[in-house]
Structures are given as C-alpha cells and as structure tokens.
Amino acid sequence: MKKAALLMTVLFLLFGCADPNLEHPVIEDLGMVGVMGFDYVDQETIKLSLTLPQPSKDAEEQVQQFTSTVQLPHEAMMDISTLTEKTLTSAQLRVVLFSEEFARKRGVMKELENLYRDPQVGSNVFVAVVKGDVEDILTATYKDKPEINNYINELLTPRTMTAFSPFSTIHNFINRKTDEVSDPSVPYLERVNGDSLKITKVAFFKEDKMVDTMAPEEAKLVEAMKGKKDLPPLSITIPSSDGTEEEQFIMKFTTSRVSVKANRDLQKPEIFVHLYARGSIVDYNGTRYLSVRENREEVEEEASKHLEQKVLRALASFQEAEVDPIGLGDYFRLNNARGWSKEKWIEAFSRADVTTHVELRIVSTGTLK
C-alpha cells in the first residue's frame, strides 16, 4: 500500500502540477503568423519572413516582422520562436508570398506542399508572387493603409475590379499543378508610388516554376475564356473613323460566354475559340456619334477585331511558354484517355492550329455622343 501511495504521489507531482500554458497557451501568448514570404538564397536555402500582428493596443508597432535563413519553413518557425516571447502558430496564416526570383529559379511546390500537410494551415490561404524581395515588401511603410496582414489579405480577396487576376489559394495551386490538363497562375504584386501595393500582372507557371507574366487587359480575356461571368470593365482601342488616329472606350460587361471547338486530334490539333460579350460603353474619347446605329456597328466591328488580336496573342504566348492556364486540354482528354499525360498534351498544344472569333455587342451608350 505504501508503494502504491508513493507512486500516486510521484505521478501527481509529475503531471498534476505541470504548467498548463505549455500544453494550452492562452491566446495572448500566441504569435499568429499572418503572412509568410519566401526569398531566394540558393537551391537548398530559403530566406523566410513572417509577420505577427500585435494584439496589444499599447504596442508601438502594429506588426512584428521576423526573417530567418533556413532550409524548411517549419525550421524558421522554430528559429523565430527563440526571438519572440510568443508561441508561434500558423493557424491564422492568410497569405503566402514568393519573390519572382524564388518562383522562377527554385519553384514553389515544395514549400506549398509542406504548408498543405500542416493541419494548422488552412487550404484557403492566398498565394501570390511579388516583384523584388518579399522582406522589403513586408518591412515597407504603407501610409493610410491597414496593418500589413489585413492589407495584403484584402488586396488578394477577389473583387470585381480585379477579376482579371486568378486569385489562387494553396489548394487551387496544388490542384492545378497536379491535374492532367492545366497549369497554375497567381496574382503578381508590385510596390507603386512608394507606399502602396498593386496587382499589376498575372504570373503563369509551368509545373511549379514561374515562366511568364501577362498584363491585366489580356488577362481579363483569359479569365473570360475560362468561363468567368463577372468580368471587370475593359479598355478597348480602335482606329478613328478616318483611320488617322486611335480612339479609346471603356466597356462594362453585362453578359459574356465562351465556346471552344476542338478536333480532338493530338497529332494535328485544331482549336477554335469563340468569345461573345455584351456591355455598355461608360467612357469614350472618340468622335463617332454612337447613338447612330451605323456608327455603333462600326465600333463593334473594330473592337471585335482588336479583342481577337489580344486573344490570339495570349494563346500564342501560352503555346510558346508551353503552358495551359485555361485548361484547353479538357477538350482533347476524353478522346485520348489511353496514354494521356500533361506532358503529351502540352507538346500537342504547343503546335496546335489556334483560331478565334470575338463578337462584341454594345447594348447601351448612356449619355455619350
């Protein structure tokens, strides 16, 4: 009995008196990582930056920022834990950023897979590429903007005016990377005017490495070819009525739809893309009186030609880069299921005969002349 009592006493001292904060730290003791960024060092080493919001209203800085040079993301978490009084957790991670150099030279899949396997990290964390170093982006001062965690998260949250960008989460990226027909694409961020961030382009990936970017106006058409309905306003340039100058107008879309026809032959692939869109002109700097039907039809024809050229340039750039961010391989896969692979499709797509037709209709010109 004495031995049993002694054993119970020892167990109580070992477990009953343990510090509960070690197992279940209170929220004030947690460092909630909001943004995680990767900069290139070499093929084996990464420079990882983290931002932690300050819960205290009395703190001089709203956000703490830490940087560590390591080989694995979670190694940085352990290293940075020794630099802060907080217990770091990725449960509130919102955004993962990669420098363009990192995305082009090293690729992003290894880091995203490590995060994807972490049960604390949600699958809806946004992914983006930035111009320059991520560390510089996270340590910069942004006047009259929310703290950096909320600022970047809100910037990458889909909105109508930025619908040209394929807002991508970790889940979206890995899904696109591992499927058999398409390739990933993510927003591209830059600092502008010194104290603001802006989505300026779309970054396209082959496998997990960034290979090219595309300007917003062409990226809007790419999103339309994906079947996206809510398109942002589009700036369209056409020749003037006498052909000596250029005119420009802004079109706000009300309806858009895409139709793709393919011959399904991987030996001699042919693809025809038909894009139909209707909308209202909200701004116009030309001299045509758009209330006149003939003038309106002339503008529709010229604008359709303009957009056709943009669509063809976009598709040609994908063929040259050997990527398929639209997923055109879906139109060939069913008839070529035996022996199908993404590599086989991309090779066929790179030499495909691609044609397109854009049909634009103006349904309203407002009070414009």
UniProtKB/TrEMBL annotation:
Stored InterPro entries: GerAC_N, Spore_GerAC-like, Spore_GerAC-like_C, Spore_GerAC_C_sf
One of the record's GO cellular component terms: membrane
GO biological process: spore germination
Source species, domain of life: Bacteria
One Pfam family linked to the record: Spore_GerAC
Main subcellular location: membrane
Keyword Glycoprotein: no
Record-linked Gene3D superfamilies: Nutrient germinant receptor protein C, domain 3
Topology in membrane: Lipid-anchor
Subcellular location: Membrane
Domain Spore germination protein N-terminal: 26-190
Secretion signal span: 1-18
Presence of the UniProt keyword Cell cycle in the record: no
Domain Spore germination GerAC-like C-terminal, chain residue ranges per copy: 201-366
Key words, A-Z: Germination, Lipoprotein, Membrane, Palmitate, Signal
Family that this chain belongs to: Belongs to the GerABKC lipoprotein family.
The protein's name in its UniProt record: Ger(X)C family spore germination protein
UniProt organism field: Halalkalibacter alkaliphilus
